[in-house]
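pinning this so it doesn't scroll away 📌
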Amino acid sequence: MTETVTTSPAEESTGSTLNPELTAHWQTRLAELVEQHGVGASLAILHRGEIVAEAAAGWAHKGAGIEATTDTVFQIGSISKVWTATVAMALVDDGVLHLDTPIVDVLPELKLADEELTRKVTLRHLLTHSSGIDGDVFTDTGRGDDNLEKYVQLLADEAVNHPLGATMSYCNSGFSLLGRVMEVVTGTQWDELMRQRLFRPLGLKQIGTLPEEALLHRAAMGHIGTPPAPAPAWGLIRNAGPAGLIHTTPREVLAFVKMHLDGGVAADGTRILAEATTAAMQEPQIDVPDKWFLATHWGLGWFLDEWDGTKVFGHDGGTLGQSAFLRVLPEHDLAICLLTNGGDAMALYRAVFNEIAGELAGVQMRAPLEPTPEPLPFDPADYVGVYERASTRLEVVERDGGLVMILTVSGIIATLAGLEPVEMELRTLQPGVFVTRRPELDAWLSVVFYELPDGTKYIHHGARATPKVA
């Protein structure tokens, strides 16, 4: 169980001292940016081994009139995956898990829709989002401690998104499966395992995985819509835990990052991971077909990118009206964490991270995408069709010689967030690659058309591979 705190304990988490000038600057600057782009946000910066600045601005809960502070806990969403991956790799260090041994060896009851997938899927496939298990299966299996066990039983009826190891497609379902594997090999339920192997050894005090733990702190509420209003629910279903249910503060996320930068050793000298294992998590494992959205490659948990020739690793997260952003520039001993709860979080992220990376590392982020000034020639027939996976349908149609993509999201996320089908024009970026703009965002997002060696056509968008079905 987490402990309540009433003051900003950056020194307790990292042994750091805030830089007063930098902190004051970012308190003012973040307030300006939140006023322009968001509802509420909290920021922390780790530089040369210390938390040098913290800031918070806007609303933690606009409906209740609760302001965001640096002690407000936000949902970090899929950044949780790197925490789950870290404990999984610690179990590899312990010899109870192995990267390339079939999962079915430790989970003999596993049944997936494809027999070969069941027999051959490994921990490496799960960590690199290359298993082919359809990644967005959000089926509620209850609040009990057996929620992951029940969830894994349901995967037998879920579609295979792509052949095992054939491509990368972001997979929440694979991390829920991984959470169950970790429970089986340790005999410890996932939430408690995270407390034992990470939260307590790192000395974290404003962190949890369950909503009742968030109630021990000042907790941010997600906001959706335009203008943003409090979401109809605070969190996601419990079996999404290993994929995205950690809540905490930016400073505690950066205490976790500092352990990774220090070769797997916590601030008090506790070894969490072997040094070689920590390094291996940051090494490329698989190419990302859409290199414009998040990253060019995926490691073991981390995604991997490059800014101005500088190595970058990190992760993002999104839940109901909350968005989280984490980037690490190891060559500059710099890490930035921004947690938000509504508005145009992508624009806020770009403004904050570009300024900090420029000021503290002399590095600029990749330039935002823009369509070609004049459309590149293409044959619409090469792209028109229906592309579909669990909870998402992409229909590409020709209109006035151009292309329009109709995005329809279904399932629990669509219901809670009130998502309706949206039509988005596709504009050319380069052959086979288009950009589109969602109604709620200013940024252009990439849409990559490609095919696998077996000839199956796919769209890669939002880090997910969606096969052509008609």
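📌 and the second one:
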Amino acid sequence: MAMKIRLARGGSKKRPFYAIVATDSRMPRDGRFLEKLGTYNPLMPKDSEERVKMNMERVQYWLSQGAQPTDRVARFLETAGQRDKTERKNLKKAVPGKKATERAAAKAEKAAAPAEETAGE
């Protein structure tokens, strides 16, 4: 059974609240889970201790059983000092998309055309 430590959403519309749970990876996000390991409240200030609460003994147990944390939970574990920090790179973030590149080229062509006409007279 492929185990995951992930977030299960609770709370009402536009007021998210998450439970950190150990679950089978085939279960739905808010579906059945084996154990609740903590909570995450994204509406709290980032420096608040109440923002992320985890039972670290149980988290360590599930990690030793082979459970894989999701990206967000792995970040929580890094800030808690339970995991080594991993370097993340998003090399394509700063590169404009295909349509944006086409628009920029068209705009440059359009700007160059009137400049050539005035220079030729």
